[in-house]
Amino acid sequence: MPSRHRAFLILSSLGLLAVLSFGLALTAGSLKVAAADILAALFGYGDGAADMVLQLRLPRALAGFACGGLLALAGALMQVLLRNPLADPYILGISGGAGVGAMFAMLFGLPLLAVDGLAFAGALAAMFIVFGLAHGDGSWTQTRLLLTGVIVAAGCGALIALMLSIADERKLHGMLFWLMGDLGQTFDWWPALLALVVALLCAMPFARELNLLSRGLMQAQALGVAVDRLRYAIYLLASLATAASVTTAGSIGFVGLVVPHLVRLATGNDQRLLLPAAVLAGGSLLVLADTAARTLIAPQQLPVGVLTALIGVPVFLFLLSRQAK
Amino acid sequence: MSAPLLEARQLSVEIGGKTVVDRMNLSLAPGERLAILGRNGAGKSTLLSTLAGLRQPQAGAVLLDGEDCALLPPRQAALRRAWLGQFQADPFGSTVMETALTGRHPHLGRWDWESKRDAELARSALQAVGLQDMETRQIHTLSGGERQRLAIATLLTQAAALYLLDEPLAHLDLNHQMAVLQLFAGAARDCGAGIIMVLHDPALAHRFCDRALLVHGDGRCIMGTVDDILTAKTLSELYGYGLRQIDDGGHRCFIPE
User: Fold this and answer.
1) What 3-state DSSP class applies to B145?
2) pLDDT of residue A311
3) B159 touches chain A (CB under 8 A)
4) Whole-angstrom Cα distance, residue A93 to residue B68?
5) What are the residue ranges spanned by the domains of chain B?
6) Which residue of B has its CA nearest to A324?
7) How far, in Å, CA of A184 to CA of B126, rounded?
8) Do B49 and A269 make contact, defined as CB atoms within 8 angstroms?
9) Beta carbons of A3 and B113 less than 8 Å apart
10) Residues A184 and A301 sit within 8 Å (Cβ to Cβ)
11) Is B6's pLDDT higher than 90?
12) What's the DSSP call for residue B4?
């Protein structure tokens, strides 16, 4: 059990990491502007170039941080809900549903706002379908939930593949970028950031109960957790957080799976520390990855999802091989 | 006479279409120890978790300290009774100390962190089961018996007046079996704790309990003092295997024929 003091230290250093990642995101790019100018622009004293850079890079960094935080939070919650260390935010088909909505909108050349709107609607639809089917006989067991989610996700995958195969070649590029996760097509940054703050504020009061839930349903119930209510709440919260992120930036992979594990490895499995730490770490990671995505082979931009996966896969395999010992 | 810690009124429990108990009445006073015995699959664990309020009965009610379990908020119930399950699954890592401290959950407010006093309670509970030097060990590295003793320490940390124990002796070697039974016997004698435990050894049940409940698995169940009810005849019928009873200095021993 981390003491409050230690939790504060860890969160402060992760906060510092977040600030540094923003610093890098704002200064790195094809247009070189001095850090001091950007800092001045941040406080409203900037010149033309610095202001413009800020207007281009800051919303993107904010959206990236919000999405990374949402995914890491949703991943940590899903892992507790399914009591499965290999769970991630997309495992129950939320991103699949959002993907179907977004692909449909792109296939018919709808505007960006409609893409986001249909993606969110798709995510919600998947969420309710999985909930309804998994809850059908009242059992609502982890296995049933997991299986239902995986099957719905597979169905969505098939629909996405169908739409990709009949799509116009000019639209294909955008569709693929969306599926891999891309912050370049973000409509606005504040909904995701708002969702992140609300989700974290909703989750934190239940952190100690989540600790117990991860040890078993009966165990948690015997120790005084209203298990059924808590599980519904986490499912809803994790799904909505995932939906908010996927709507903003497409299905960015591996942040939601790897970040909770990395944080768990460093700080232990106390959700009171794990949840906020995962938010800070996930947000920072995505900001850094996105900065790399738009600068590595500039002027060409990479979808950030490719980079997170490229970083995520080896890290995860490394963790997995360590765990086996 | 103080109020019973646990009361079952006209309790009917079923599982998988099978009746475990039918309109059973039971009352457990402070300091009393009750053993539940029966064959595999007779529904002992189901009955125990129903008595703990973790499962809805088909009919009837379970009262903890005079209040209906079904209406009691989970946290209030957790302050009144502690339940030891048969299985401890640990998908995520955790230390021995963290695990023992989970027992303090019902005593803490929503934003509280475990205090020094909570840590001391957990430490003395670990000491009571002989795990005092293992506070920082990861639970994955514990043996089955050590894990079981840790679960018992968590129960002690919970500090409820009623203990419901599902096979508390599972995985334990002989000396720890005796130590655990003596620990709970002491809690009943000195602190007035009520104890209901599922046991498989009628001799230990006779030695460490006041009453026994024999669950036949077909709806029949017999309850009585251990002297009356734990006999070769009733137990042979219960297990469907002939047993011989040997008395030795007040203790009873049952030998399969």
Assistant:
1) helix
2) 78
3) no
4) 40
5) 6-85+160-256
6) B140
7) 55
8) no
9) yes
10) yes
11) yes
12) P
Q: How far apart are CA B30 and CA B21, in angstroms?
A: 23
Name residue B166's amino acid. Answer: D
Alpha-carbon distance of B35 to B37, in angstroms, equals 6
Contact yes or no for B60/B141 (Cβ under 8 A): no
Q: What is the mean pLDDT of residues A40-66?
A: 84
- Measured between CA atoms, the residue of chain A closest to residue B46 is A218
> What is the side-by-side order of every strand in the sheet holding B221-225?
B81-84, B162-166, B194-198, B33-38, B211-215, B221-225
Chain A residues whose CB is inside 8 A of the B76 CB are 224
Peptide bond between residue B168 and the one before it cis (omega within 30 degrees of 0): no
The Cα–Cα gap between A94 and A123 comes to 5
Residues in chain A within 8 Å Cβ distance of B113? 1, 3-4, 272
Q: Do A208 and B83 touch (CB under 8 A)?
A: no
Q: Give the whole-angstrom CA distance, residue A34 versus residue A299.
A: 20
The CATH architecture to which B6-85+160-256 belongs is 3-Layer(aba) Sandwich (3.40)
Q: What is the CA radius of gyration of chain B?
A: 18
What is the pLDDT at residue A224? 95
Tokens at residue B21, please? Answer: 């108990």
Both structure tokens of B191: 């602190």
Both tokens of B3, joined, read 């109020």
- Residue type (1 letter), B171: H
User: Which of A56-70, A138-152, A159-173, B202-216 is least confident?
Assistant: A138-152
Q: Which domains does chain A have, with CATH numbers?
A: 4-324 (1.10.3470.10)
Contact criterion met (CB below 8 Å) for B37 and B215:
yes
- A-chain CB neighbours of B139 within 8 Å are none
Distance from CA of A243 to the nearest CA of B (A): 26
CB contact under 8 A, A223 and B111: no
pLDDT the model gives residue B241: 94
| SS3 assignment, position B85 | coil
How many C-beta atoms surround the C-beta of residue B240 within 10 A? 8
pLDDT digits (tens, 9 = 90+) for B111-131: 899 999 999 999 999 999 999
Please answer yes or no on whether A211 and B102 come within 8 Å at the CB atom: yes
pTM of model > 0.90: yes
- Predicted local confidence at residue A318, as pLDDT: 79
Q: What is the pLDDT of residues B192-216, one digit of tens each?
A: 999 999 999 999 999 999 999 999 9
Radius of gyration of chain A (CA): 20
Cβ count within 10 A of residue B48: 24
Q: Is the pLDDT of residue B30 over 60?
A: yes
Please report how many Cα atoms fall inside a 13 Å half-sphere around the Cα of residue B118, on the Cβ side: 21
How far apart are the CA of B169 and the nearest CA of chain A, in angstroms? 18
Report the distance separating Cα B156 and Cα B142, nearest Å.
19
Mean per-residue pLDDT for A157-164? 94
